[in-house]
Amino acid sequence: MNNYKLLPALVSLLQTRNLTVSAKALNVTQSAMSKTLNQIRQAFGDQILVRQANLFVLTERGEQLKRQLPSLLTQLDDLYLSKPLNLANCQRKFNFASSDYVAQAVFPQVCAHLLNQAPQASIEYYVWHKDLLSELHRHPIDVVSTIADDIPENLYGEAMAQDTQVCIFRPNHPLAEQTLTLERYVAAQHVLITGGGDKDTPVDSALEALGLKRRIFARMPFFQGAVELLKTSDTILTTPLHIAADFAERYGLQLRPLPLTLPEHHYYLLWHAKHQQDSEHRWFRQQCLVQLSGHLNGRIEQGMKLIHSD
Prior knowledge:
CATH superfamily of the largest domain: Periplasmic binding protein-like II
Distance between the termini: 76 Å
CATH topology of the largest domain: D-Maltodextrin-Binding Protein, domain 2
Strand order of the largest sheet: 4-3-5-12-6
Structural class: alpha/beta
Shape: rod-shaped
Mean pLDDT: 90
Radius of gyration: 32 Å
Number of strands: 12
Strand content: 15-25%
Largest sheet: 5 strands, mixed
Helix content: 40-55%
Number of domains: 3
Order of helices and strands: HHHEEHEHHEEEEHEHEHEHEEH
């Protein structure tokens, strides 16, 4: 393998053509510089410097190296410099992953900010499943917004919020005028969201531990379809508080706490360690964090007010 450590001494010798001056410039002894010159000659298979009376003259190879090396070493030095952030010229495609709810509730704001700040960049949305979190390095995902209990190795992230499960139904649902007991909850006709890992809840496990099982009337992949069903039928949906609060406000639905004690959900924005020092990625994930965290915490606060007002 080539000995690149010889290059600084070679550059000095090509410029000074003097062992004594180069030795002083590099803070080494003259004998050490003479030994280095011999190593340079062996490495390049050329004399490089030839003694002419009291001077050294460059060989043809030496003249060639004198012309080439300064720019090459500058390029090598540039490898150590961080890439400056230039959003106006950023042409990167960012990949964002989360649930279909985030796609409709938060992603448009992320897109608007990206278009405003980095108009040449682009973005793609992936519907995420939390079971893939340990395999994030295998996917072309820049950031993922998800529920997580444990953060796998080599992932970085920011905690955004935490909330719990509640249920929602239309205002003229029979349960609207009743206390939502466990018995009534189990007997109700439930809508289950099947698309994406963020919809999975520990509800059925908790009911099973009590020897109970709820009736799933309809399984649907997306939230919007479930909302339309809630508006026109006596069905109920169990969903995180921030989502329930959003739908309660937008569609006039009723929100109730569950008659079960369940662990809280912890929401994170996560990315793989390979992106940690990337300046463009750092900017992008900060924009996502602001939008997502603001939405989550705002809707959770709104949901708590709705619960306590009932």
